[in-house]
Amino acid sequence: MAATEPAAGDDSLYVLTACLLTPARFPSVLGDDYPAACAALGLAPYEEGYGLLFGQDGLGARWTVVIDDVSLVAVAIASWDCGMAYDLSPDESSVVAGLPGWPLPVATKAPGVPDPHDPEPEEGDPAPLTPPTGDVWGPAQRRLGADEVALHWNEWRDRIAPGPAQERPAAAPTTAQDPYTGVRRALEELRGYLEEPPPAGRVRSGFAGEGARTIRADGPGWSLVARTDDMAFVLLDDLPREVLPVTRGPQLPALLEGLDAIAVRPT
């Protein structure tokens, strides 16, 4: 995927991959919303956003370099997604910060340098960024789980009720069951978002095809993924690795349409 050959010297960076950190598109592992994701990296929530470059220096150490040239990173990602090479070489003037470690797992490594490792700490340096582990369950894992449901929507949908949308059940979940106490709380907080807009990025909307949108929303202790033409799924901090369905019912369509209206969208 990557693009930038390292120059001579330990301070050079071989860029392995990159991602966007914007109100509409940010690594959900970092927080429930864009300001929280920025705070996790010690950044101000700049409205235009940032690009995050993940690479290794000449000694093989992991670094996350933050730049303010969002367009450059967006073009690089689009090129890589199309299977095209792209030399992601930002101007030094666009560099905002260099942070030790990676907040996300990176599957590749730079050729000709030692294996990826955390850089030797110097006095005053922040602790290296590390990806979340899979052996515990918490907010980061819950958000990543919701991302996976969104990515593989059809598979999760077919586990609940295979068949066309118009044939799917419309009954709401039984809120008397303990798991749905958390689901009910999440839905109530989502309705509150319609009255008082949440922080930027707390609700995001993406293209889902056939005139529908995918809604991703988060809050304290819960995550939701839904399609505006279908049902929703909720994940909770209190129920590790459980994906709870919210079938369409009489109230969900209006809620999802309202959330879509206030959501931030990729440009």
Describe this structure in words.
By secondary structure, the protein is an alpha+beta fold. The protein folds into two domains: 1-131, no CATH class; 139-262, no CATH class. Helices cover 25% and strands 22% of the residues. It contains six helices and nine strands. The strands form two sheets. Strands 5-6-7-8-9 form a five-stranded antiparallel beta sheet, with helices on both faces. It has a four-stranded antiparallel beta sheet with strand order 1-2-3-4. A hairpin with a 2-residue loop joins strand 6 (212-219) and strand 7 (222-227). Helix 5 crosses helix 6. The protein is elongated, with a radius of gyration of 20 Å.
Which key phrases capture this entry?
267 residues, alpha+beta, four-stranded antiparallel sheet, Integral membrane protein
What is the topology?
Blueprint: E1 13-21, H1 34-40, E2 50-57, E3 62-67, H2 70-81, E4 95-100, H3 139-151, H4 153-160, H5 179-195, E5 203-209, E6 212-219, E7 222-227, E8 232-236, E9 244-246, H6 252-262
Helix pairs in contact: 5-6
